[in-house]
Design goal:
Layout: H1 17-33, H2 39-46, H3 54-63, E1 72-79, E2 82-90, H4 98-122
Antiparallel strand pairs: 1-2
Helix pairs in contact: 1-2
Organism: Tanacetum cinerariifolium
Protein name: Zinc finger, CCHC-type
């Protein structure tokens, strides 16, 4: 849900209040069990349970469409206090849970970390790391 979107009180024909309240209840259950990402939308939409409009109902149905939403992968790599690589992009796949989405982001960040490690290792300015020797 867009945080800038202005939600207005209903002035027209109301949507069925009982059905709207049930939908909010279902979203609250989803929010507390498996979908913390919808907390903001549920909070804003639950304020209109006494007199919901068609706009509010449309936003509720849009909030619950997991198959239409994709998460974002974000990371920043720092070297010497400065950012040397960063990304903020939508994931190309749609996952069913927040944990799976985190794994997708972890894989992408891991590939970037490996590439940066290889780049820094091949720069001749910095000394190569010394492998510790064990004496038994």
């Amino acid at each position: 849900m867009d945080p800038i979107e202005k939600l207005m009180p209903n002035t027209g024909k109301p949507v069925d209040q009982l059905e709207y309240s049930r939908a909010i209840g279902c979203l609250m259950y989803d929010m507390t069990s498996t979908r913390p990402d919808i907390a903001y939308a549920v909070d804003r939409l639950s304020k209109f349970t006494s007199n919901p409009s068609r706009q509010h109902w449309h936003l509720i149905t849009r909030t619950n469409h997991v198959e239409d939403s994709s998460s974002t992968s974000e990371w920043v790599f720092l070297l010497g206090g400065g950012a040397i690589s960063w990304a903020f992009k939508k994931q190309t796949c749609i996952t069913g849970s927040t944990m799976k989405s985190e794994f997708v982001a972890l894989v992408a960040a891991g590939k970037e970390a490996e590439w940066l490690r290889n780049l820094i290792y091949n720069i001749p300015i910095w000394p190569k790391p010394i492998v510790p020797i064990s004496i038994l």
